[in-house]
Amino acid sequence: MFDNPKIAGQFATPENLVSLIAEISHGIPAKTIFDPACGTAILLTSVAKGRENVEKVVGIDINQDVSQIAEATLKKSGLNYQLLNANYFHTSIADEFDLVVCNPPFGMRIDIEIDGLKIRSAEAAFILRSLQSIKPNGYAIFITPEGLLFNESNRSFRDYISQEYSLEAIISLPSNSFQPYAGVKTSLVVLKNSKQSEKVFLAEFAETQALKVIVSNFQKQTSNKNLSQGFWVDINTIQKTNSVWAYGRYKGIKDFEIKKANSKYPLRLLSELVSIGKSKSSTTDTILIQRIGNQPKVIMKDELPEKSNSKSYIELSLSGDD
């Protein structure tokens, strides 16, 4: 590792996340491994370390100072390596790889077209370009800001992945993973160069001691009663939710299914009973939920005081006869 985790907008991958990626990747046969934003090459060498028959590892980084550290790291590893100090998007890579691992730079804007998609997010660009370099049935493991996984502006990217490749796993990462250098919430995404799998693995890496359980559940295709340690969701369910790839969304659905099965009363999701946003419904059919506060106030719209600002509330309109 280097002393300053922030160099030219790049953030060193925390050790606990390096361990998580290495453990997951060790269940994937790989003779050739690639990191298109390798930094100091700690992630790349950790993933390759302890494997049999690794033929070659390849790393690219645009920062010359960081590349010098990566050179020392790779020499020390004893691996057969190729290291390029270059802009990944201006570099031709002839090889195809069994495995790509990457913690791409966060928040960088880019204007590029890949496979017919106009891309503005550097994280999405790194993923799509890397997938082009993977052999059939090869894998890509990326750390990515969660906005890429649920923002509507990135939906075409997510739809394309599930149409042309396979979303295998989403693992929510600790919210403080990159603090104090970046406060962005991140997830680990596992992709495969194959037809989309029927089920997707979801978990939350909230505790280091849960690492081996999460990895075991993914590799053995099992689940835990403790949902944070891993469960599986049908890809059809994900596609029905506007291709949202957020762990929290499906944990909520799973929690509701469990409560519904164990409740002596009929339960319904709020989304089945209301529509969110302004509507032409009468004020007697509209609920307002206060946006801010530890215990948000809930009132009917016709109870809103005249001097109150309606923008301070989320508006829910009752639908149907329920």
In brief:
The protein is α/β, with parallel strands linked by helices.
Please name the defining characteristics of this protein.
322 residues, 4-stranded antiparallel beta sheet, alpha/beta, single chain
Query: How large is the radius of gyration?
Result: 23 Å
Described by the principal axes of the CA atoms, the overall outline is: elongated
- What order do the SSEs take from the amino end to the carboxyl end, as H and E? EEHEHEHEEEEHEHHEEEHEHHHEEEE
In DSSP terms (H or I, runs of 4 or more residues), the helix count works out at 10
**Which regions have little confidence, pLDDT < 50, spanning 5+ residues?**
1-9
Q: Major beta sheet, specifics? A: 9 strands, mixed
Q: What is the β-strand count?
A: 17
- Average pLDDT taken over every residue: 85
Strand content: 25-35%
Give the spatial strand order of the biggest sheet: 5-4-3-6-9-11-10-12-13
Give an overview in words.
This protein has 322 residues and is α/β, with parallel strands linked by helices. The protein has ten helices and 17 strands. The strands form four sheets. Strands 5-4-3-6-9-11-10-12-13 form a nine-stranded mixed β-sheet, with helices on both faces. A four-stranded antiparallel β-sheet has the order 14-17-15-16. Strand 7 (109-114) and strand 8 form a beta hairpin. Helix 1 packs parallel to helix 2. The longest helix has 16 residues, at 247-262. The protein is elongated.
